[in-house]
Amino acid sequence: MNSKKTLLLALLILICTLSSYASYRYALIQEAVEETLIRPEFAMVDINGQTRSISEWDGQIILLNFWATWCPPCLEEIPGFIELQEQYGNQGFQIIGIAADNEDAVRKFAEETKFNYPIIAAELEALELIGRYGNRSGGIPYSVFINREGEISDRIMGELSKIKAEQLLISLGLKS
């Protein structure tokens, strides 16, 4: 093969590769744009045996927190969340804890911790739900803020500090 044909073939391969990459990136952007901002519905039984539906808190600001007892960053967040629920609960704020964990372990931990917000032990169901709320990797801790209109306003992967959570709550209209 002469050098012109080799160069032309290399150029053609480069164009095809760039075209494929551009199509892939476009599909990712479209998926992100099309991803709903409205919170998905769910109903699960909490550790007290009560069926809890996300719609139970319609009209409130919600912090949906996915966690597990075996996750050190998850456990670091919880004391701050308890304080936030105490501080802002009377302004229409509700935290809901979804544990991707064994119910017995969650119940034992909850008894020791004295949660002031609902806790749901969901094991595998939690992983399905976490994906529906925008976390396709399934990593925890993962927190989702939902405004009073039921729209997802923020998604936080990894440990969420009380200070950062409070800033997000104030941006959603709560008074410090």
Question: How would you concisely characterize the structure shown here?
Answer:
The protein is of the alpha/beta class and 176 residues long. The chain is built from five helices and seven strands. Helix content is 45%, strand content 19%.
Spell out the helices and strands N to C.
HEEEHEHEHEEH
Largest sheet: 5 strands, mixed
* Rg over C-alpha atoms, rounded to the nearest angstrom: 22 Å
CATH architecture group name of the largest domain: 3-Layer(aba) Sandwich
Question: If you consult CATH, what is the topology of the largest domain?
Answer: Glutaredoxin
- Please tell me the total number of domains: 2
CATH superfamily of the largest domain: Glutaredoxin
Distance between the termini: 74 Å
Strand proportion: 15-25%
**Helix content bin:** 40-55%
Cα shape: elongated
Total of DSSP H or I helical runs spanning 4+ residues: 5
Class derived from helix and strand content: alpha/beta
Instruction: List low-confidence stretches.
Output: none
Mean pLDDT equals: 88
Sheet with the most strands: spatial strand order: 5-4-3-6-7
Total strand segments: 7
- CATH class category name of the largest domain: Alpha Beta
Structure explained in plain terms:
It is a single chain. The model has no long low-confidence stretch (mean pLDDT 88). The longest helix has 32 residues, at 3-34. Helix 3 (103-113) links the parallel strand 4 (93-99) and strand 5. The strands form two sheets. The protein has a five-stranded mixed β-sheet, sandwiched between helices. It has 176 residues and is of the alpha/beta class. The chain is built from five helices and seven strands; from the N terminus they run H-E-E-E-H-E-H-E-H-E-E-H. It is elongated, with a radius of gyration of 22 Å. It is 45% helix and 19% strand. The relative contact order is 0.16. The protein has two domains: 1-34; 43-171, Glutaredoxin (3-Layer(aba) Sandwich).
